[in-house]
Amino acid sequence: MSSRDKILQAVKNNQPEHTMLPSLEGLSDMPDTFEDYKKVVEGLGAIVEEINSEADELAALDKHLPDRLRIIDARSSIQREWINEDPHTLEDVDVALVEGQWAVAENGAVWLTEKEMQVRALPFICQHLVLIISRERILATMHEAYEKIGSPENGFGVFIAGPSKTADIEQSLVLGAHGAKSLLVLVKP
Amino acid sequence: MNSHTTDHATLADKFNENEPRVNWHDETLWWVRKKRDRMAWSVSGWEKLREAASDIKRHVLGNLHDYLVQFEQQAIKNGAIVHWAADAAEHNKIVLEILQQHQVKRMVKSKSMLTEECHLNPHLEANGIDVIDTDLGERIVQLAKEPPSHIVLPCIHKKKEEIGELFHEHLGTPAGNADPQFLTAAARQHLRQEFLQADAAITGVNFAVAETGEMVVCTNEGNADMGAHLAKVHIACMGIEKIIPKRKHLGVFLRLLARSATGQPITTYSSHFRQPNPGQELHIVLVDNGRSRQLGREDFRNSLKCIRCGACMNTCPVYRRSGGHSYHTAVAGPIGSILAPNLDMKDFADLPFASTLCGSCSNVCPVKIDIHQQLYKWRQVIVQEGYATSGKKMSMKMMTSVLSSPATYRTAGKMGRWVLRAFPGMVNNRMNPWYKQREMPAPPKVSFSEWYAKNKKDEQQG
């Protein structure tokens, strides 16, 4: 008998009796305002700016990320050649801009998928990450988020909440472990 | 697979030789526990959430066969290659074969307690493959040639000066520099090179969704993603108990995991891997290694609900003052002490006794595992099966005979009080570990029942 069949047989013999799945109704009772989202994600070390135009966006970039030798805007329909290159070549990207689908007020997370990031490695390998979200797409909790996201449409998706970080050395919090060293969230109307 | 020659009490003694360090360890983990409390209190309906998580996991255990089959079908449909490993040896063999097929000489690994449980690293290294652990804490203990001492905070037993020395020796940082910011930046530089050169990446799995065949991996550092998205082979290793039914159930577990673990609202990255990157191979290794056996143990099967947050360790008064290495197993602390005897009852017979049974672990567990009750039950099984140490067996036998006869109990009590007064050295000596850090209590003149009988008489007379 293969290991697969052996394991499945042992599981079948030993598993307890069937019980019902619980309802997920009424688990969410948290606020979903922009102010709540901002407070939480800033607590995680991100910077939040409200923008109303392209000029606002540029001003926010100039203010927080003035040094950007190589910048990739994953939303761009003109700048596309990087998408077909080996992702290792993204190692020298200073700033990457990616549109987020949904934001979650309770934990500051932004949901984005392969479709928005174009190349999976981009939001992790860049030195600084900029996520752009719409104010009306801020949800209260993860329950609402999974309801909106629905079934997967592509191969990879991620919730990102803040810059990469570690506290492995004596529990001292340090921003910038292996992923992006900073996160700027731009909130458009 | 277990080569220890000593038990929890002896190893804890060693950890306690350095008192300031033990105090620091104790206070730091308690601080993490308090962060967890603040986070839990800030979520309305936290207890309902724990209840839901526990019920989902119970449902999964009752339907695990069907969910495993469903997960496999979905994963194959997604383009992944699925492997099944009955034990640690088969898991290591499968991983090695995949790496050899691709002629991998150097690979990066993000945190996976399963690969620690299976002792994968030494197996790969014996076969000429360099394994680079990429979680900062795990890299530190790897450089120190030690196992992790905590499942979420792998090098919580180390002081920054020791880490500075390790980095000076292995990464060439200046001697004497122990600044966490500086050392983290040095590790980032060093490990970026490894990510860029690695041919394969191994990750653990936090949750696997039967409905979609996808796997969720949670990190703060981004190391799982740096590895998995850049290497041409991604191997995800998971225990068969990681399955959850539907995508929407992730909402429940992701709300609980990081809040319980470190007091964060969520980890920085919660990555959902479903299909391999174009041009990449995605392998999933499903590992049993005793889990199906634990599933059949009615008293202990709830331990399979565990989501590996580590909250039971942070709150445990024994763990905090004895350190993770004293448990001599991959998963330390209260939950590890329930899991390990299932793997080897003789080698880990000491662990269920490494607890005060205070119940703090069960109170913080996000999936409501009755941890302290299972520890208590393991003690009975271990004594019945004849694995308790001879001293423990002897004292338990004596207690049984004393406690089962009221007359013997009264006589023994009288004798005990007399001995404590007349010859305190007979009890308070080096042979009795209870008195090592304690003062003798003053023995009462009469027992409670004697006092009660007399008091009752006085009352009636008065």
Characterise this structure:
Chain A is globular, with a radius of gyration of 20 Å. The longest helix of chain A is centred in the N-terminal third of the chain and has 12 residues, at 3-14. In chain A, 26% of the residues lie in helices and 23% in strands. Chain A has 189 residues and is α/β, with parallel strands linked by helices. Chain B is α/β, with parallel strands linked by helices and 462 residues long. In chain B, the strands form 2 sheets. In chain B, strands 1-10-7-4-2-3 form a 6-stranded parallel β-sheet, with helices on both faces. Chain B has a 4-stranded mixed β-sheet with strand order 8-5-6-9, with helices on both faces. Chain B is globular and about 90 Å long. Chains A and B meet through α1, α6, β8 and β9 of A and α2, α3, α4, α8 and α10 of B.
Can you give me a brief rundown of this structure?
The complex is a heterodimer of chains A (189) and B (462). Chain A is α/β, with parallel strands linked by helices and 189 residues long.
- Spatial order of strands in the largest sheet of chain A: 1-11-6-3-2
Major sheet: arrangement of strands of chain B? 1-10-7-4-2-3
Strand residues, percent of chain A: 15-25%
The coarse silhouette of chain B is: globular
Helix-strand pattern of chain A = HHEHEEEEHHEEHEEEE
Radius of gyration of chain B: 25 Å
Question: What share of the residues of chain A lie within helices?
Answer: 25-40%
Q: State the shape of chain A.
A: globular
Key words describing this protein structure:
heterodimer; A: 189 residues; alpha/beta; five-stranded parallel beta sheet; four-stranded mixed beta sheet; 6 helices; 11 strands; B: 462 residues; 21 helices; 10 strands
List the helices and strands and how they pair.
The complex is a heterodimer of chains A (189) and B (462).
Chain A: H1 3-14, H2 34-43, E1 47-50, H3 54-64, E2 71-73, E3 95-99, E4 102-104, E5 110-113, H4 114-117, H5 122-125, E6 128-134, E7 138-139, H6 142-149, E8 156-160, E9 165-166, E10 174-175, E11 182-188
Parallel strand pairs in A: 1-11, 2-3, 3-6, 4-7, 6-11
Antiparallel strand pairs in A: 4-5, 5-8, 9-10
Chain B: H1 8-15, H2 19-42, H3 46-62, H4 64-77, E1 81-85, H5 88-101, E2 106-109, H6 113-117, H7 120-126, E3 130-133, H8 136-143, H9 160-171, H10 180-197, E4 200-203, E5 207-209, E6 214-219, H11 223-230, E7 233-239, E8 243-244, H12 249-261, E9 269-273, E10 281-287, H13 291-296, H14 311-315, H15 317-322, H16 333-343, H17 360-364, H18 371-384, H19 390-404, H20 406-422, H21 448-461
Parallel strand pairs in B: 1-10, 2-3, 2-4, 4-7, 5-8, 7-10
Antiparallel strand pairs in B: 5-6, 6-9
Helix pairs in contact in B: 2-12, 3-12, 9-10, 16-18, 19-20
